[in-house]
Design a protein that fits this description.
- This protein is mostly beta strands and about 270 residues long.
- It is built from no helices and 26 strands.
- The protein is globular.
Length: about 270
């Protein structure tokens, strides 16, 4: 998955980062820099630039950049010989270090709020699982059973929980578990695909995209699965504003990928 950045109308501050097929990027926690993926002759390459688009710099070969909470490092995935692993690099682009080894494909990284742990999707010979690895380096640890087909991990704002998607092929549900892998539970059951869980800043709600109802739409629910509301059709890959009042999302209502922002109530929708 790759992300397109959403900035404020003035272009001065980052509102959110939204995943959109074919594009790439992630906002630094401080809001001054953007990390993004750009294709090149030797494959995708992670770059950084200022929020106004100036000062573009190449950092490292790879994709799916995600910032550390302190804004000083970036974790990303790098493919080689039909496998991918996670790497970490500083803002100077020097001495990128490999973080994970031994899996078939490691991607979709998510930093814990304290910066100590990285959750990610780990493909193995048995299937796809949610795994964690210390950001300083060390052995990776699977938190879920690879045979259950788990994807898209997202740490809660307090770092105590991880939301993720389990299943595929029109049968995916949002699950949550404690950061150590215990207490796993399905948040809400549905026959369609529920994807890309995104925690609200206060940790009380989860926004997600879903194919329920026949069209891929944007929904929000309480973290316990209650108070489900459809916000927009079509829409998905949500990201909350820091104050929790707005949600940025991807839509293709006019045939091409677009980014919109609306209030959490579903009103005041506008294209960026």
């Amino acid at each position: 998955m790759v992300r397109l950045l959403v900035t404020s109308a003035a272009g001065l501050g980052i509102v959110a980062a939204v995943a959109v097929p074919g594009l790439g990027g992630a906002a630094s926690p401080a809001g001054g820099l953007l990390a993004f993926t750009r294709s090149s002759g030797d494959g995708p390459v992670v770059h950084v630039m200022r929020a106004d688009g100036s000062g573009v710099r190449r950092l490292a070969r790879g994709a799916e950049p995600a910032w550390a909470p302190d804004g000083r490092r970036i974790v990303f995935s790098r493919a080689a010989q039909l496998r991918s692993s996670l790497w970490i690099v500083g803002l100077d682009g020097r001495a990128a270090r490999r973080l994970t080894r031994g899996g078939d494909a490691d991607w979709e990284p998510s930093w814990s709020p304290d910066g100590r742990t990285i959750a990610f999707e780990a493909w193995t010979s048995r299937g796809s699982a949610i795994a964690v690895v210390p950001a300083r380096g060390g052995a990776r640890r699977l938190l879920t059973d690879p045979r259950k087909d788990d994807h898209m991990p997202a740490f809660s704002p307090d770092g105590r929980w991880i939301a993720f998607t389990r299943g595929g092929n029109a049968g995916a549900d949002i699950h949550v578990m404690r950061a150590d892998g215990t207490g796993e539970r399905r948040v809400r059951r549905h026959a369609g695909e529920d994807l890309d869980p995104a925690w609200s800043p206060d940790g009380r709600s989860i926004a997600f995209g879903s194919g329920r109802g026949g069209r891929y739409s944007l929904y929000v629910m309480r973290a316990d699965g209650t108070r489900l509301r459809r916000l927009r059709t079509p829409g998905g890959t949500p990201a909350w504003s820091p104050d929790g009042r707005s949600i940025a999302y991807a839509t293709g209502r006019d045939g091409d990928p677009e980014i919109h922002v609306m209030s959490v109530s579903g009103a005041a929708d506008r294209r960026l």
